[in-house]
Write a structure and sequence with these properties.
It is built from 11 helices and 6 strands. With 308 residues, it is an alpha/beta fold. It has 2 domains: 162 residues, Lambda Exonuclease, Chain A, CATH 3.90.320; 77 residues, no CATH class. Strands 1, 2, 3, 4, 5 and 6 form a 6-stranded mixed sheet that branches. A hairpin with a 4-residue loop joins strand 2 and strand 3. The chain starts with 9 loop residues before the first helix and ends in a 5-residue tail after the last helix.
Length: 308
């Protein structure tokens, strides 16, 4: 990473100012978290007999995004994940950042990226290892070029991460509800700080969209339910624009996340168990939906004018 003793450039200072703890800040009381927990468990109560600890309902950021965007798309993509250059490059960027945080000596972006690709390739049977090993030379060069660019942006734009900030990358969390019948799972790009004052950061290689705030609110909800303490701040950081989109974690933010979780989980259960037909909602996911060719709303959307 950039030398911690060197003066911060304007981009780094802007990030530090946006993430700093404001004067007079106080954490949310535990009673708020317990009320949110009761809201969630009460809302999910109808699922107690529909799922079991052996066959639970898994709820992730991606699943919630899919079910709220288009229920038919949610069903169509279940169990269909495959590695591509597009999704693998984000994993490599995050691995490079993880290595750089603990790197000893000067950081050369290309060297760190090569090490990140090598580490991921060596993790047999896990993550994108098989996909990376099968890349053609041109594809590997394309992947490397993209990741070096994004990692360099992070190194130039993000303030050096001090050990006292407790930086953690690719941090996983899980919460089991209704005796394990419902499982909430997250994997956060970067966290700073201790429970009760944690900052949760999602790194994006492109633009920032409203959906990203919803994703982070789900992260905050899971962190609060797991630890009994709410995080302090949520931030989506765009490597392209070198700016964070931040939101303070309030009781209202957690309530909104709880309502979205409950609504999404009930919808997942209903369409998975064929209690009703999945609704079809046209939108950007139609571009990569496996059933778009057989979906009238999807075909109409794709035939329309190109959106930015």
């Amino acid at each position: 990473m950039t030398d911690a003793a060197a003066p911060l450039n304007p981009m780094q200072q802007a990030v530090l100012d946006a993430l700093a703890r404001p004067p007079g800040w106080t954490p949310l009381p535990g009673s708020v978290i317990e009320a949110i927990r009761a809201q969630v468990t009460g809302g999910l109560a109808p699922l107690a007999d529909a799922f079991t600890p052996e066959e639970p309902l898994f709820v992730t950021k991606a699943a919630l995004g899919h079910i709220h965007a288009c229920e038919a798309h949610y069903l169509a993509q279940l169990g269909t994940f495959a590695w591509t250059l597009e999704n693998a490059r984000g994993t490599v960027v995050h691995k490079a950042i993880e290595l750089a945080i603990h790197w000893r000596g000067p950081v050369e972006p290309a060297e760190v990226v090569d090490e990140a690709i090598a580490r991921l390739s060596d993790e047999e049977g896990h993550g994108p290892s098989d996909f990376l090993e099968q890349l053609r030379p041109a594809e590997r060069a394309q992947l490397r070029s993209f990741v070096v660019d994004r990692f360099t942006k992070f190194d130039e734009c993000f303030p050096p991460l001090k050990a006292a900030w407790r930086p953690v990358t690719e941090s996983s969390a899980r919460v089991e509800l209704l005796g394990g019948a419902v499982r909430l799972s997250t994997r956060v790009d970067l966290t700073l700080g201790a429970p009760g004052s944690k900052v949760i950061i999602d790194l994006k290689s492109g633009r920032i969209f409203p959906q990203h705030r919803e994703d982070l609110r789900f992260y905050a909800l899971v962190d609060a339910l797991r630890s009994g303490q709410a995080p302090r701040l949520l931030a989506t950081y765009s490597l392209d624009s070198a700016r964070p989109d931040v939101e303070q974690v309030t009781e209202g933010v957690l309530q909104a996340a709880a309502r979205r979780l409950v609504d999404g989980a009930l919808a997942m259960s209903a369409v998975q168990r064929e209690e009703r037909e999945a609704t079809r909602t046209a939108g950007p996911p139609c571009r990569w939906c496996p059933i778009a060719d057989d979906c009238a709303p999807g075909r109409a959307y794709l035939a329309g004018p190109e959106e930015d």
